[in-house]
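Many introductory courses stop at the sequence. We go one step further.
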Amino acid sequence: MKKLTSILVLGFALIARAADDIVIADFEGKDYGAWKADGAAFGPRPAQGTLPHQMEVSGFAGHGLVNSFYGGDKSTGTLTSPEFKIERKFITFLIGGGGWAGTTCMNLIVGTNIVRSAVGPNVVEGGSEALDPASWDVSEFAGQTARIEIVDNATGGWGHINVDQIVQSDRAPKVVAKPGTREREIVLDKKYLLFPVANGSKKAKKEIASVIVNGEVVRKFDIDMSETPDWFAQLDVSTWQGKKAVIRVEKIPEDSKALDLIATSDSLWHADEIYREPLRGQFHFSPRRGWNNDPNGMVFADGEYHLYFQHNPYGWPWGNMHWGLATSTDMVHWHEQPIAIYPHGYGDWAFSGSAVVDKNNTSGWKKGTNDLIVAAFTSTGRGECVVYSTDGGCTFTEYEGNPVVKNQGRDPRLLWHEPSKQWVMAVYDEFEGKKYIAFHTSPDLKTWTFQSRIADFFECPDIFPLGDKWILTAASSDYMIGQFDGKKFTPETPKLKGHQGRGFYAAQTFSHEPKGRVVRIGWLQIATPGMPFNQSMSIPIQLGLIATPEGPRMTWAPVKELESLRANSRNIGALTLKPGDANPLTSLRGELLEVRAEFTPGNAAEIALTIRGAKVSYDFAKQEIVVNDHRAPAPLRDGKQRLTIFVDRTALEVFASDGLTYVPMPFIAKPDDQSLEMIAVGGPAKIESLQVHVLNSAWR
């Protein structure tokens, strides 16, 4: 068993404490003394090292330590210290076990708030799970009363925590980096730290980067660092302007020069090239740098549309989930803002959710004149959490009672249900191993009561009124039409097909849309290889409800605000198009295009358009739209077909059958092909109208 020797190797000289150090706990006694243990995980007394069926534990001091492996990883519990007064600048400790923020962690509580938290390293060294030295700078709480809470709420792998030697000290701990870990000291003299990033290296494991200020880890994230980077990711460090920071990188090769490339800057890498990159969608939102997926928290507040989104600021692939933010007055011209919600801790990521305006201040959080924005998201280490913003949605404050809902699910969708005068949370719930949307209600966004579940929906729920009906949908965009009384959704249809294309997922509608419309944006899944960004959003789409022979059905239509992008419009007018006729679009060219056509079949079997190499055709006999060989049902309406086609550098979005059919399609246009063609196949067709709009970029 490796004890004091390991600590000396790490440079954490706890046994040589100065006389003024104050030992909070060393866990050398026969029991926990005044500490209170709840649950089974911590057992009746401190462990004397490794517990039965546990991998060897090393790196603790003396003989005893806190070890929540009593009963194995499945056991849970809490160990809480008596109150003590903060009398030194630092609290130092040893910590090991699971790295699950909020779930296997040690918290410092001042008053009723968790003001510091730490997790285990989740690593095995030399065949044992080692405790690592760690510390908190607590100088700002000097003289205040505090207590320490050691938490084990995890039941899976690494579902335990080890803690030892908790000490108050005025001496900053000096920790020698472990093998595979390197450090660099840097003064945060500018707004950003820039990190060198590779797009898709073949490393078995990415590096883990930590930014440490005054002994506290203030940011920690996975990153694929490179000494020959494809681009540089930015981390906003303006909060710690002028302070000295330690950049610690774990799992970095000993000979790598990537750490030396980290630099401070007041601007983003290649800032003058942003939005001009060859695979940047020109009217589809994408972040300046890094990955995006689900739209989150779509809300209209203080005169602007807020588009929050799942975001990895430090890499090209999925990971490190934050909430990014972009704002717009028209849903077309977006301005990316600083990150709005950072993860609660490394491993406790900020997954998808939603946002609303608490107009009546039911929560009591409103301050100032800005709309009170309240968001709910899945904290992967804690559950469904609520945060609120009083500064226009730029920064958020955690509700101290988080998590407000704990379930086997994610992606809470908030809404105000006016008939019952209450808040509703629709959340994906894997209750008893099956897939549901669960409904919870609250009078104040703080206290939630479970009401009901409905089966067979997966991830990212959304629920909204449309006409005199309610629509319930989820990540795939398949939906049911029915009624909702604030507690239970009663379907009036089976599950119906949503979009008819590919690469469209996790769409959400805006809360409080000022014109009373139901407007949706989805994640458009299109990879952008070689770029410093990845993925994008769909155009904003207005939803409607129309009658069909099969019953009411939802419709999709591009919002009218997109017309502001039209730069050059040509109205071809009505014509009869026969096989072999000259191409009526031969004189037109464009990179960014909106094409609108209305036609009747005549004797034609097919009308086919080719736009920048993309093929969009209509099969009259089968009443199907074909987009790059992908077929989708698109019935004639009143004997006619009406098409709207948007073409961007990396996407096609096709609307047919008065919006009954929406076909999104990832597509990378050929840079040197800006041609358009329209032909009839098998006989003449009557073209009632044909319009082509060359579009401006939304970025310029």
